[in-house]
Each structure stands twice: as C-alpha cells, then as structure tokens.
Amino acid sequence: MSWNRKLLMVDLTRKSYYSVDIPSDTLRAFIGGRGLAAKLLWDLNQPGVNPLSPENHLIFAVGPLTGYPVPSSGKMLIASKSPLTGGYGDGNIGTRAAVEMRKTGYDAIVVKGASDKPTVLFITCKSVEFHDAEDLWGKGTRETEKKLKERFGSDVSVLSIGPAGENKVLYATVISEHGRSGGRPGMGAVMGSKKLKAVVFKGCEMPEPSNKRELLKAATEAYNFLKSAPAYEFWVRQGTMGTIVWSQKNSALPTYNFREAVFDDYEGISGDIMEKMKVASGACPMCNMPCRNYVEYSINGTKDVAEPDYENVAMLGSNIGIGNLAEVSHLNNVIDDYGMDTISTGNVLGYVMELSEKKLIKDYTLEWGDFRKALEAVKMIALREGFGNLMADGVMRLSRYVGGEAQDFAMHVKGLEISAYDCHAAPGMALAYGTSSIGAHHKDAWFISLEINMGRDLYNEEKPRRLVLMQNIRGGLFESFVSCRLPWVELGLDIQNYVRFIRAATGVDFTWDELMTVAQRIYSLVRAFWVREFKAEGKSWGRYMDIPPARWFKEPLTKGPLSGAKVDFNGYNFMLDKYYELRGWNSEGIPKKETLEKLGLDYVASTLYG
After folding, report:
1. What is the architecture of the domain spanning 240-415?
2. If we measure between CA atoms, which residue out of 565, 559, 561 comes closest to residue 256?
3. How far is CA 408 from CA 130, 549, 550, 556, in A?
4. What is the model's pTM?
5. What's the DSSP call for residue 255?
6. Could you tell me where the DSSP H helices lie in 417-550?
7. Could you tell me the pLDDT band of residue 570, with boundaries at 50, 70 and 90?
8. What angle do CA 512, 516, 520 make, to 5 degrees?
C-alpha cells in the first residue's frame, strides 16, 4: 500500500521526536496532503493559538501519489495556521524534497515548539537530527541551500527560509531549488518564529504501490497522451508564461494594482520575450511537461539566471507598471532569495504605489514603474526596515493603517493578496477568489478560462455549480494526492486517470463519488477551522469574508475591449448564496451541523455547535 502510515512528531523546544501510526480510516477519509494537514491542524492546534507562537503546529505532508512515476507527482504540501490571514494556510511546492520526504517513511511531519537558536532539521529514513544553523541565519535561500548540500551531501534535498522568514514577514515562504516557492500565507514566517532555518531530507526507498503493474500501465498511457497533446509543444516552449498574452487579450492582466486589466507594455514581459532570453528548461520530479523556463538577464552588467512564470511576472510587471522582463526577473530572483512570496510582494508594491499616487501616505513614496526603488522596497520589506515594516504585514493590515478609501483598493480576500487575474469582467473568477480555502489564490480554482466560454456577464446557478466541482478537483483531490493539476488543466488529461492512479497506488477501490465526498469533507473542515479560529480570537465571521475587494464592484475598467466592466454586487451575492447551498453551508458561509455530520465530521460539529 502506498501510504507509509507514519507521522513524525518533532518538538523543537525539547529537541525531541517520535513517530505515530496513522489510522487507515483517517487516510481513507482525508487521503494525504491538504486533507491530512487540515485534520492534523484541527486536532493538534489549540483554538485561537497565535500563529507565530511555539504552540502553532507546522506540517509538511505528502500524498499517496507523491513521487510515484505518474504525471507531475513530485509535490508536497506545507501547512499551518497562517500569520497573514489568521485562518488555515498552506501551499504546495514542486521539488525533489517531496520525493525524498516520502522516502524517509513518513506521510506527514508535524513540527511544534521553537528552538532557542537557529536550527536545521535533518530527516532520513533512519534518524532525525537537530543541527546548529547560526552560521546560516541571515543568509539568503540560495547560499543556504548551497551550504547545506556541502554539509550533508549533494544528494540531499532542502527546504529553507531566507531573511524574510527570519524577520517574520507575514507572506514569507519556503524555498527549494532556488526558484521553487511554497506557502504563500506565511509558512516561511512560521518557520522563522520557530528558528527553523531549514529542513533537509535524505530518503531510502519509496513505499510499494498496491498494484505496481497497473500503476505503471496507467501512468505510461498518461505520459504518452501528454506528449501527443496538441498544446504540448507550445507548453514546453512557454509554460505558464503564455498566459501573459492570453490575459492581455482577455482583459484579465492585473495592471496598476488591479485598476485596469490591460497593460500597454505587455509585450516586454510576454512569453515571446521570455523565449528570446531562455537558456534552459526544467521540470519538477516525475513531470514530462516541463514548465520551468530559465532566462538569462543582465542588470548593470551583472548577469544572472531567473525562473519566471506567469504569476510572478504579472504581479512584478504589469501590476506595478514595469514592462521589462530583465527587471522583473531580477526582482523575482531577489524576492526568492529573501524568501518571500512574489505574488503578495507585487501586490504590496502596487498598493503602495497607488497610495503614493493618491498622496494617502506621507511616510514613504513609491512611483509606478520605478524598478530601482521597488528593488530597495523589497529589501526594506525583508529586513523590516522603515516603512518596509508596515509593508511586511501585507495589504490588509497596511490598508487598516492608512484607513478610509484606501481599504477599497486593498486587493486581498481574507488577508491573502489576490493572485494575477483581474476580475472586473469575471464574476465567477471573483467568486473563486472569494471562496478559496486559503484566501485569494488561483490554486483552488482557475475559473476564468471556463467562465469566458460560459459568458463573462452571466450571473447564474451554473457558475457556482461548476466552481464547486473545479475546487473539489483542484483544491480537494490534487492538493491531497499531492500532484500537479497542470496535466489535467493545460493538456487535457482525463481526470478519471487519477481515479485509476489512486486505486492502483493505495489498493482502495475509491469511486468518483467517494473522492468527491472526500473533497467536500476537506473543504468543510478547512472552513470550520477558519470559523473556529476567528471565534476563539473574538472576531466575527460572516459572508463578508467571502466578498472580494470593493474596487471590482465600484470602479469600472477604463481601458481595453471591456472598458466599463465591473462586477455586479447583487449578482455576485446571488452566486455566493448558490455556492453556500451546494456546499451545505449556511447564509454566513459556515458549514451546517447536518453537513458536518453527514461528512463524518461530528467532532467538528460539536465544537462549532456544542
């Protein structure tokens, strides 16, 4: 059976650890990855715990497909209570570390406590070791990974934080292999609060799948399909960078802090420009549709190589008024080295640029398209210097600091900055952001492409119905398997292949309906976690938490083919009501008692309802 059935419990305060067996019914009910992480956080965290306290648990989780030779299975999940949002937070990351963690014999690693000095956690299939990391504290993620490989061997895999995580920037992430980043809602800050500089993995062997022959047969057929897909050649050339031109044509490219959806200088940051700068390509483990594009660029005569993709280029390009891919690439590299989320950083920079333009702040000035000062601002954020100390807490808190009209164009949902799709003319995508399980992130539901085909100006019952299905697949199943969704999304691999994979891997005869129930269970548990935490902290919870920024409702686009477009507030709320009905949640977005009990979450219902 593909599950290791083991949980590693680590206490950084006591420098101790032990393993625990994971019950079979828990694995069947939650699968792995996000599902297992959400279950563990519900069970282990005390309600209302401070996310940056030693009592908050940090979880690294793989799934029953992770590392097997099936398409794009080289991923893992990092989860905790988020210091940025105050709710459930996670992020997946494609890296060799996922495979090596699986090979150490654990399905999840739970870290609690806080070390009294910087520490590296070294986990193998035979031991768990705590190593001093004082010499690495203050170092960037590039140098940290290089030195750890020198120390432990070139065959180890590394997850590390940079100065941003050490300084508890609330959107600090975890970095691996220089360009891989995971945990947008502040997972790097949680590591920093525990003085956990890095986790190093060196595994032994993969657990045996239940039906190896069937798994390999199904995987081979899937790999062959992907290579023969009509979009394969273009995908390998541009990967997600092809989305720049797509978003421009479809009025979805975030521009000037999501004020507009088209950018005059989009060609300077496009996939076509990227191809001219491209020097290499790469892929995550077990992937045959590589989307890592490495570009060489020069800034002031100094050459370097960066790994641009759509999200970071849009947020550090059009969203802040920069139309030069070399400059965007350098910003991306510096942000990765500091260990911050590029999406949130680009959002914060754009927000401060608009605050400056409108003269709503006196402490600091940042102008649109100012690459040099944006680069300085990145350093200020990572080190919490000057006005960077406020920027380091994210758009939501900065908007509260400024107050007044500034909150209308603070582009976040639940405290997580919006990723790179403008929704003035995409109410269904706005709903996807509004209801995403971690805050405004496209990972759970990249709905905009489907919505364009359905009709962008429609407000109907079909959009929330399709959205729930998409979220269940993307955020429920792929995040729990743990596997990349791009073979399905970009090249059309039939989703039923994954039913075949999971059956062969685990030996459990999962049906599609059962998998959909698992996904519904995960979504309701994650939502219940948010509600529990807010109530424990004395905060109110209501449907307002699922409403995107006022800008999309109040300020229509003024440029491009969809000039004049904005989201209708009543239409949005109509779809939100239908979404709640489909989830079995009440009108405030809280899972109903009967829904929780039907999903086998009686213990959750007793907490929320007594």
Report:
1. Orthogonal Bundle (1.10)
2. 559
3. 46, 6, 5, 13
4. 0.97
5. B
6. 427-435, 448-454, 462-471, 479-481, 486-491, 496-506, 512-536
7. very high
8. 170
